[in-house]
Design brief:
The chain is of the alpha+beta class and 444 residues long. It contains ten helices and 21 strands.
Amino acid sequence: MSAVSLTALRAALEGAIPSEIATCDAQGIPNVSVISDVHYVDTDHVAISYQFFSKTRANILANPHATVLLKHPNTCAQYRLQLTYLRTELAGPLFETMRAKLAGIASHEGMSGIFHLLGADIYHVNGAEIVRGDLLPLPPPHAPLLAALRQTLPKLRAARDLDGLVASLLAALRSEFRLPHVMLLMADDACDRLYTVASQGYPESGVGAEILPGQGVIGVAARERTPIRITHATRDYLYGRAIRDALRASPMAAQLETEIPLPGLPDSGSQIAVPILDGTLLLGIIYAESPEAGRFGYDEEDALMILAAEAAAAMRQMAAEADDNVTADDLATSTESGTPLLVRHYPADDSVFIDDEYVIKGVAGAILWFLLSEHARSGRVEFSNKELRLAPQIRLPEFSENLEARLILLRRRLAERSQVLALDKAGRGRFRLNLSRPVQLIEP
C-alpha cells in the first residue's frame, strides 16, 4: 500500500460518505463504528466529531490509538489513517466550522435535529495510505482556481478606491471563479453587525441588509473569524426570510419597516462564507451560495481565503492613502425644479425616508441627512470625505470608520430607491449630491 499526504485526500474528508473508525479498549477488545465527519485540520491533524458518549468515545479515552477508513466520494478510492487522540475542543473556530458542516451532513442524511456536536476531537495523523486506488475518474473542476487567482489578484491590487475594488471582486467571482450568486458584506465599527454593500445573482440586491454575528453561515464566519462552509444547506443555517415572510402578515409587520431583506436563493444547496481580516480585525465577509449540493470544497475555501486576504491588503492600503486634504467646492450648485421631495429623518436610529419610503438608517442615514441639511442651508452640492469625518452629527468612530464602504452603501441604495436624488464621485475624496427636485426636510 502506498503512503499519501493528508492534503491529497481532502475530498474524502468532506463527509459525503460516512467513514469507519476502529478502536480498542484498555483490555484490547476491538470496536468498529461508523462516523459522520472526519475533518481536515492541517497536514498532520484531523478532527472527529464528538456527538455523544459512545463505545468509541470510551475506548479513545482509555486507549488513544485509532484507525479510520475513508472513501473518496467521486473516485471510490479508499484510504486508511492511523491516528492518536490528543484533545477535545468545546468551542472556537474549529468547533463552529465542524458544527456547521455536521448540520449540513445531518440535513443531507435526513437526520436534522439528531446530530449535535459536543466537541471536536483532535487527532495526530501518524500515517495515511491508499487501500484501494481510484475506480472512477475525477470530475472536472468547476473553475480553474489557480488561474482564477492569477487573473484576479492583480486587478484587486490595481483598484484605486473601494468602489473599484468591490466591482473587481464581484466581477472576478462571477467570471473567473464561476460563482454567479455572491454577496459582499462589510463589518461596522464595533463588529457588532455586518451590512451588505454589493451582491449579484439575485432578483433584489439587498444592499443595506444587515446580519448579526452568529447568525447563519455569514454571522458564524464573522464571529469566529474563520471560513464556514456547508456542503448541504440546512435549516439551522438559513436566514430569516421565511420568518420575515410570516411576519409580514402578522401584527408585527410594522417592525419590518426599516429592515432590508437579505437576498438569497430560495433553494440553496451549499454555502460558503469567508472572513476578510486585517489581523484579527474583521473588515467584511465574502459569501457565495449555489443551488448545487457539495459545490464548495476545500479547494474553493482555500482560493476564497487567498482572495479575501488580498482584498484586506488592498483595503488597508486604501485606508493608509486616504486623502483628507481636499476641500469641498463651495461654488458648485444644482438645478432643481418641480414638486419638493419630502425627506424625513428620525434621529433615534438615523433612519431616512424619501416620500414615505424607507431608504437607509444608521451611519449612512446620518451622512445622507447631513448632506441634505448642508445643501438646504448653503445650496452646496459638492462635499469631501474630510468634512464627513469631522462632522460631529455623523458620529463616525475615531478608528475603523469604514467611511468609503458607507458611501458605497448609500450610493447604491439611492440608485435603487430614488430617481431624483443621487450621490456621484467628483474626484479623489470628493463627491457630488445630484438633485433634480427641491427638497423639503422634515425631522419629527
